[in-house]
Amino acid sequence: QVQLVESGGGLVLPGGSLRLSCAASGSIFSFNTINWYRQAPGQARELVATVNSVGSTYYANSVKGRFTISGDSATNTGHLEMYSLKPEDTAVYYCNIEYYSTRYSSAIWSAWGRGTQVTVSA
Fold first, then answer.
1. H/E/C letters for each residue in 37-56?
2. Strand, helix or coil for residue 88
3. What integer pLDDT is reported at residue 105 of this predicted model?
4. 57-112 per-position pLDDT tens digit
5. Is the pLDDT of residue 47 over 90?
6. Where are the extended beta strands (E) located within the chain?
7. I want to staple 115 with a disulfide (CB 3.0 to 4.6 A). Which of 52, 92, 105, 120 is the partner?
């Protein structure tokens, strides 16, 4: 099993910045993708950003140019740098890792963190 621990959420003023982190531990050999989702009250969970093992990234249009995702293959950790935050960025942010459990298996597993609250408000 793999456990994910997220950190870095909090309350920030509009225009401010936050850095979210996601640390994986347990039976993980390497990650295939690290994904950040968010879910605002009354809304569906949405994909915010993705980074794969070779560094290719994807961003939702709503955060493009303001958020930066990164992943560290050596430590199986991920980060989401968030700049120019807006009140509409307020949500619980979830880390998701799709990973290989061993060097010899091609099966991809998925693990989720419990989420960290980000609130953007004056």
1. EEECCCCCCEEEEEEECCCC
2. helix
3. 84
4. 999 999 999 999 999 989 999 999 999 999 999 999 999 999 999 888 889 999 99
5. yes
6. 2-7, 10-12, 18-26, 30-39, 46-52, 57-59, 67-72, 77-82, 91-100, 108-112, 116-120
7. 92
Cα 52–chain centre separation:
12
Phi, psi angle pair for 67, to nearest 5°: -110, 150
Average pLDDT, the chain: 95
φ/ψ (deg, to 5) at 88: -75, -5
Q: State the greatest distance between any 2 C-alpha atoms of the chain, in Å, as a whole number.
A: 51
What the block records as the tokens of 15 is 């225009």
3-class state of residue 93 by DSSP: strand
DSSP 122: -
Buried b (16+ CB within 10 A) or exposed e, 87-113: eebbbbbbbbbbbbbeeeeeeeeebeb
Phi/psi class of residue 57: alpha, beta or left (left: φ > 0; alpha: ψ in -120 to 50)? beta
